[in-house]
Amino acid sequence: MSLTLALILAAQTAAAANPQVDVTAEPQTNQTARDEGRLGTAQQGGGDVVVTARRRAETIQSVPIAMSVIGGTALAETGTYNVNRLTQIQPTLQFYSTNPRNSAANIRGLGAPFGLTNDGIEQGVGIYVDQVYYSRIASATFDFTDTERIEVLRGPQGTLYGKNTTAGAINIITRPPSFTPEARVELSAGNYNFFQGKASVSGPLVDDKVAVRLSTSITTRRGTIYNTRQQEWQNSQDNLSLRSQFLWHATPTLDLTLSGDYARQNPNCCVQYYARVGATQRPLNRQYAALAAAQGYSVPSTNAFDRLTDVDTDLRAKQELGGLSLVANWDVGEATLTSVSAWRFWHWDPSNDRDFIGLPITTVSANPSQQSQVTQELRIASNGKRKLDYVLGAFYFWQSIDTQGLQVQGPAASAFLLNPTSAAGRNPATLNGLTSRNTIGFTNTSAALFGKLTWHVDDRLSVSPGLRLNYDRKDGSYLSVVTNGAGSTSLTSDQRGVLAPQNYTPSFTNWNLSGDLTVAYEFNPNVHYYATYARSYKSGGINLSGLPLDAQNNPILATQTVKPEKVNHFELGLKTQFADRRATVNIAGFWTEIGDYQATVNNLQVNVLRGYLANAGRVRTRGIEIDSAFRPTERFNIYANGAFTDARYTRFTNAPCPPELSGGTALPVVNGQIVGTPAAAGTPGASLPYCNISGQWLPGVSRWAFSYGAEYDLPATVAGTEGQFYLGYDGSYRSKFSSNPSRSTYTDINGYSLSNVRAGFKAPGSWNAFVWVRNLFDHDYYELLATQSGSTGLIVGQPGDPRTYGFTISKSF
């Protein structure tokens, strides 16, 4: 008998004895928060916002967790239709992506290693949609479809959520099926041929028994980068999302929600291209300027913000993802029993230009991948508020990934990647046609028991211990078959130095016990304090992107596995409302230390840019966050959020050296101190030993980040409809951050600010029409900077969007 069927039969029996009890599939926010929800903690300026972060309905101000909530109206008005855009209104959230597969979501600088994605490890930021865990970070690139609200939780959440999340969670809640007929339509259009259409319809199929909701979203936009060689626009958008939900009131005490979704993205994407050139310690004839001159090559523009490229490989970033889920909620009186069963898939079909320029160095770079996952979560949570509240759960996760990698070197590869003094010199035939075919398999099994108790010592003081027992097993296989231009597997040392055959079968198994303790005190109904300590673990993993090579170009098998991260987290928080609850100010201070930090580093042989994982000693991140919102009058809202984050490697003594030291033989000296360490036998790397980067910034996180804005409205009646004209502004700022695993002056991204404005008319619950401008001042900024294969000194970049403008109109029926 299936778990869900057992719940139905048991609930039907219980319903006869308790017919007056009614349950819903998911506790909902109040109507004000749903229709007028602004940004942040309670950014409508006051009142109660109901959240389900702790798996029960609670007001956000009473939850002792640093978190923010963004309502569906705010998502639409700010153009926040995916996680990448969410970072502009969430200072503590970082999201970086060179394509959907190579994406990373971090909170407070933690969550995923910065750089190329490695399938053999897990993300520290959990992404949940209607309680279902999404294991692929690529799913974070999808468009939000029919979203009611998004809860962003900061800090470890492993005792509340099925999958362990050591950095935080992004909890996305879509609009549920309704027994009252309703429909929504939203249309947007703008420059760069931007179009976005969203629609949903909901209503009863069987009165008071079965309701359905159908939703769809389409986004298209011309690319912002012009390829002069292929004569086409690149980095476009082409997204389609479909979602269906069926809610069945099986009994007065049992609800079941069956959901299905499908999303397809097929953009002409993703290109990084010439940003600048930096000097290395290689001989001049092995640096970019000389290498390009020898080929008679020059890029279309040396100013990246001319937005011109000439990459010569067709780009593709096609992905399909979707799945089915069944959520059952059974109210047994004293508690609610919840079952979340889900199956999901993700198919990835890419094509990249990994030399980033218009020369045939790497002519093919693609790693098509197919993933399936199955999850089962079972929870019991106490109802209401009593002396002892609790959430207890069990979680099972299974995942399989199959990847078929292909890389082909072209006729310019020898000139760029080989030393002129090597046996073959720079004979184009040496590397032309050199091909690596990789077959990669991966299975991941995880199981956990978790729970959190809340003991209300009295009306003001509560103590909440949590515990998690976790089991992880990961098994993989990596087979790389390399052939030369003639199709032979007999390779020269030069060829093996660029693409080396590898065959290994890594495996990792681990049990761990983690937990947390929160003490909360309610000074009065509008002032809440809390203190949290968490001891958490991020599962270890296996390397599935190829291993670094020793001096004989053989894989170093000792690097097959990566140890778990050990997390010690401390947090103090204050949540306040005042001025008749028209003002909200929440403050959180945190200190997190991680041992055996999992970092992506680059193979420093002359071969292609390839990330592999290592444990980078210790990391520490600490900071202060402020979320505030004010409503001085009924017509005026203001919000301001800020984060100071000091995230550093406290010990990383064997890191890869930054690009300006590539090819050097002398130990680098910084501020009068030697920062290199003599290389040990078999250490991966070029002639320069690895570097000690202890004390340097973690990549991808700004020391200072802010989001701020305001909206003013005037009541008016238009065409017989009462509403208000409004003018809104949203701004954000991020200070300088590093865009390389080892900080480099060439890959630091300068701080930047963005301004977005909107103006329109809305009638809450009816329609909303407004014009908008994003990046109002057309600020030039990079989302990412990276180095070229072969450490030539070429730095490539991914510019952020230029100024965009358009209009949006939405209607609710």
TrEMBL record:
<keyword id="KW-0732">Signal</keyword>
<dbReference type="Pfam" id="PF07715">
    <property type="entry name" value="Plug"/>
</dbReference>
<keyword id="KW-0813">Transport</keyword>
<dbReference type="InterPro" id="IPR036942">
    <property type="entry name" value="Beta-barrel_TonB_sf"/>
</dbReference>
<feature type="signal peptide">
    <location>
        <begin position="1"/>
        <end position="16"/>
    </location>
</feature>
<keyword id="KW-0675">Receptor</keyword>
<keyword id="KW-0812">Transmembrane</keyword>
<feature type="domain" description="TonB-dependent receptor-like beta-barrel">
    <location>
        <begin position="284"/>
        <end position="776"/>
    </location>
</feature>
<feature type="region of interest" description="Disordered">
    <location>
        <begin position="26"/>
        <end position="46"/>
    </location>
</feature>
<dbReference type="GO" id="GO:0009279">
    <property type="term" value="C:cell outer membrane"/>
</dbReference>
<keyword id="KW-1134">Transmembrane beta strand</keyword>
<keyword id="KW-0798">TonB box</keyword>
<dbReference type="InterPro" id="IPR012910">
    <property type="entry name" value="Plug_dom"/>
</dbReference>
<comment type="similarity">
    <text>Belongs to the TonB-dependent receptor family.</text>
</comment>
<keyword id="KW-0406">Ion transport</keyword>
<dbReference type="Pfam" id="PF00593">
    <property type="entry name" value="TonB_dep_Rec_b-barrel"/>
</dbReference>
<keyword id="KW-0408">Iron</keyword>
<keyword id="KW-0998">Cell outer membrane</keyword>
<keyword id="KW-0410">Iron transport</keyword>
<keyword id="KW-0472">Membrane</keyword>
<dbReference type="GO" id="GO:0006826">
    <property type="term" value="P:iron ion transport"/>
</dbReference>
<dbReference type="InterPro" id="IPR039426">
    <property type="entry name" value="TonB-dep_rcpt-like"/>
</dbReference>
<dbReference type="InterPro" id="IPR000531">
    <property type="entry name" value="Beta-barrel_TonB"/>
</dbReference>
<feature type="domain" description="TonB-dependent receptor plug">
    <location>
        <begin position="60"/>
        <end position="169"/>
    </location>
</feature>
<protein>
    <submittedName>
        <fullName>TonB-dependent receptor</fullName>
    </submittedName>
</protein>
